[in-house]
Amino acid sequence: MPFSSSLATDAGSSSGRSINIEQRPGEFYPSFFENLPSLKGKTVVITGFSRGLGYVTALSVAKKGATVFLLNRKSERAEESAAAIAAATPEGTPSPRQIECDLLDFASVRTAAKLVKDFAPDGGAVDVLCCNAGIMLQPDEASADGYDITASTNMLSHFLLTKELMPSLEKAAAVRGEARIVTMSSGSGFGKPSFNAKFFERNGGKLGDSSYERYHQSKLANLVFTKALDDKLRAKNSNVIAVACHPGVCATDMLVHVRTTMKKGLLLDSVPTAEDGSIAQLKCICESGIKSGDLWGPDFESQNEVVRNDISPPLVLVDENVKTTLWKLCEKATGVFEL
Length: 339
Known about the structure:
Elements: E1 4-8, E2 18-22, H1 29-34, E3 43-47, H2 52-63, E4 67-72, H3 76-88, E5 97-100, H4 106-119, H5 121-124, E6 128-131, H6 149-176, E7 179-184, H7 211-235, E8 240-245, H8 253-261, H9 274-277, H10 279-286, E9 294-298, E10 306-310, H11 320-334
Parallel strand pairs: 3-4, 3-6, 4-5, 6-7, 7-8, 8-9
Antiparallel strand pairs: 1-2, 9-10
């Protein structure tokens, strides 16, 4: 399933500069995709579907028969991708519904969540919320709500979206036995530095730290959030599970942006494709036997096998204090989230 992709040199900017390449087909993805179960009768919500991992993931679940809600900021690229996904949707499956969602504006996120609940089948039931969208190496700027744009996009708005859609996830779990929250993290969230609360306070544009440090903190937060959410869901015996994934290094627009920012060659042919990079996320969405609180991603050494890891030290610097602190910071930004 090769696909054409416009890989932005700056994934979060409005410059409009891009590099058009023809993505080569994945090495492992085709057989993996063929063996995925049908998703007919299930509803999947995904953020950031217009390019890269999000596009492959949205296209894959649509082809497997899911009712798909596509959440993205408004752009020409999003329109083109939504049309391509709709064209690939099997006959008899509802056409994907595109909903504008700007992760730099909490009001936009709340509106998007309401529209999902209004239009999702089975009284607004959602089987999978895929928190895929992310940005990296972005300027020290504030979101519409005053938070760092990297923290807002990668963590705070996904916390808010999860909070708003939790009743819909619980509804699907009650009807079909399980629902899932799948959060895309990154190997950049592993190890030191440890969690720092200042990156999630209302001081966007005033942090002064490196763009990579802001990204690391946001990706660490994704993992801490998954673990904290898992704790809360298990405490109430919920049939909703929370899992995290990471793609390894793969040929996406984010890699182009990073390599360009660092003034290095793109090397797109020397890393796994976006299709292969999407396997961990698709596994978390589709396959049975996925356990809440787990982290899935490519094997660090071989990169040809997706493996399970614990969200725990020394890989992930998480403890009870960090989980509690992040949750309170997210609630302060977006509102109380009680399960």
